[in-house]
Amino acid sequence: MEAGEAAGAVLFLLAAAVSLLAAVSTGALDFTYLVTVVGEGSSTSPGSGGGAWWREAWVGARSRAVAPALQVGVWACMVMSVMLVVEATYNSAVSVAARLVGWRPERRFKWEPLGGGAGAGAGDEEKGEAAAAAYPMVMVQIPMYNELEVYKLSIGAVCGLKWPKERLIIQVLDDSTDAFIKNLVELECEDWASKGLNIKYATRSGRKGFKAGALKKGMEWDYAKQCEYVAIFDADFQPEPDFLLRTVPFLMHNQNVALVQARWVFVNDRVSLLTRIQKTFLDYHFKAEQEAGSATFAFFSFNGTAGVWRTEAINDAGGWKDRTTVEDMDLAVRATLKGWKFIYLGDLRVKSELPSTYKAYCRQQFRWSCGGANLFRKMIWDVLVAKKVSSLKKIYILYSFFLLFLPIWGVAYIPTALLIVTAIRNPENLHTVPLWILFESVMSMHRLRAAVAGLLQLQEFNQWIVTKKVGNNAFDENNETPLLQKSRKRVNLPEIGLSVFLIFCASYNLVFHGKNSFYINLYLQGLAFFLLGLNCVGTLPDHCCF
Predict the structure, then answer these.
(1) Predicted local distance difference test score (pLDDT) of residue 400
(2) Pfam families of this UniProt entry (predicted)?
(3) Angstrom distance (rounded) from CA 15 to CA 4
(4) What is the pLDDT, as a whole number, of residue 30?
(5) Which of 4, 237, 484, 540 has the fewest CB atoms within 10 Å, i.e. is most exposed?
(6) Among the residues of 121-199, which ranges form H helices?
(7) Which residues pair with 199 in a beta bridge?
């Protein structure tokens, strides 16, 4: 067991103890309540009282069957909620501790800069063949599908990477079905090729396997087999010129490292309330979750883009597989079970674009949640029997990587705890964290449906709908969209229906509050569902939506 894993285990136990102690001391967990409810219910007699027979029958059924079943469901949700708080507390604690002690990937893994770094297309000949040979062969893959608005951005940014041009292959994997867009992408590749770049334009006859299928096909070309490392960028990602110079040395000097992952930043994080909330969530994901996994177990989820893989590790793990819609997560788990380690570079940032409409965001989250649940179904046994990872790492993978994909819902204490631990690593987003908590309550409905579809492999479990992008030109920093701008799109009936239910429950609790009153929180959640049901989330102008 490595020191990082031992430290991670200790911090996890401390986080669990603190979270459970706080839950019990505040009354969030009352272990006598379930017994009391069931006991009181069983003492009710249908024959007692002078009401109508149907009322007596309903009271008896409610006390003996409905109430206990609902209580078990509530407890199941609250157990998962406590699990989430434990995990969030642990991630935030590790992340803060890493910052306080000055932990950096360079302190755990060897890193040495490459000499100077040649620009892609300038001065390589003067350096000579000997200098260029010090650089390994790298291939950069750019998978895309009908990316009219952004294809130039990613191709241009990748072609600007600092790396000897004879040691760099750029592969554009175009699965576009629109002939006009395909022609534009091909012409763009030809234009860069005429400037001396080794850029390949690759297409397929179909879209089997979606992104995973395209990446797998791209690795089958003869020139791809010459490359030691493979960087991947989605069509809306724009790496800085020094991206390879900062990532590849980690792979060169640490033969047990399979992946170096960079952080995402966003070009449209301030155009609407929707994108601001997404930024809050993703900032926490990168600052806490990814950093904690990298600092302790050298494992985290590959984000599917803005990362560099060792080709040997991809092949050792079995290559790209299209059995789920989370091919990145699939490869990451299989690689770590083979004993490979991952590195996250939080100070290396790559610009990208957030989904700009509520519909697009829901589709993206459905794909991620459904794919994660389906992968859990397919890989749980592989994780349990893996021989090249420690038992602690197995627990970490199953707990933080799979179980917490299930939707979590608390009433008052859980959102408050999440607000605190999230704000610790996102102080600049503090003003949007309460809105994010309410927004996540709405998204839990969609993630529940997605998780069930993935676990049971329902009809929609393997659907892939590409997130629509609009490109940099659509975002004007001097003309921000109002926070609550209603879209002209259709009403979302599921959200409206659940908002009515929550508002009814809140009103009932207000009138018949008993010992506990949660109506304020329920009213807020009902309002959140209602606003999202009307698409009042802030969005781009209608000509940019779909």
Answers:
(1) 72
(2) Glyco_trans_2_3
(3) 16
(4) 55
(5) 484
(6) 124-133, 151-159, 179-193
(7) 170
Of 174, 234, 269, 328, catalytic: 328
pTM (two decimals): 0.79
* Domain made up of 134-359: CATH architecture: Alpha-Beta Complex (3.90)
* Residue 269: active-site member: no
330 among known catalytic residues: no
Active-site residue, selected from the candidate residues 174, 175, 269, 283: 175
Q: Where are the domains of the chain?
A: 134-359, 487-545
Helix segments in 27-64, DSSP class H: 33-42, 53-61
pLDDT of amino acid 296 = 86
Name residue, tokens 């600049």: 428
Distance CA 454, CA 376 (A): 9
Cβ proximity of 335 and 316 under 8 Å: yes
Contacts for 79 with CB less than 8 Å, ≥ 6 apart: none
**H/E run at residue 344:** strand 341-352
Q: Which residues of the chain have pLDDT under 70?
A: 1-9, 11-12, 15-16, 18-20, 22-51, 116-130, 402-426, 429-430, 461-469, 471-489, 514-516, 538-546
46: left (phi over 0), alpha (psi -120 to 50) or beta: alpha
| Helices 413-425 & 3-26 angle (0-180, nearest 10) | 140
Query: What's the pLDDT at 343?
Result: 95
CA distance 369 to 371: 5
Q: What angle do CA 520, 525, 529 make, to 5 degrees?
A: 145
Half-sphere exposure of 227 toward its Cβ, with a 13 Å CA cutoff?
26
Number of Cβ atoms within 10 Å of the Cβ of 186: 15
The type of residue at 311 is T
Handedness of CA 267, 272, 276, 278 (dihedral sign): negative
Distance between CA atoms of residues 23 and 212, nearest Å: 42
